[in-house]
Amino acid sequence: MNDTQRTRAQSSVGFYKIEVDQASTALAAAKDKLAKYLAANQTSGPLGALADATVTQLTQALSVAQSNYDAATSHLTDAGAGLSSVADSGVLRVFDSPRTTELPVGRKKKLIFGGIAGLFAGAMVSLFILLFLVIGDRAVHGTGDLEDLLGMQVVGTIDQFKTKIRAGKSDS
Fold first, then answer.
1. How confident is the chain (172 residues) per 10-residue block, as mean pLDDT?
2. pTM of the complete model
3. For 52, which DSSP code?
């Protein structure tokens, strides 16, 4: 966007420079015509009224040329100010330049190290979850756990009976 604005501003400056040159040429020509006419017609003769009309016409042409030159100069100044503001707005200032390593890192190396780091992170998460589950386990696994929990001595235990569950009979 800044490049587009800069290009437009440069085009405007170039256009108004051409206009100033043309207006300057027209102004110089109008001044020259008036000066030559006044030099050639210094005496007032029988054409005095006609001479005054020509002087008036040349003076008006000089006035128009001067106003065109002033307008073109004003436009050129505005375009130059616009160009400098576009140039200043597009400037990026880097306060901390990026640090780069001398050796490039290949894609294969990145994938290998990424995979190893992923496996390590997964193992650490699994280890912490396992540790949390073991510490939080309050189930009774033997007589020693009961003695510690109740503060009494266990006299005897009864093993669990093994029973077979029969398949349901069908009424056919």
1. 73 85 90 86 57 81 90 84 62 64 77 93 95 87 82 82 68 50
2. 0.43
3. H
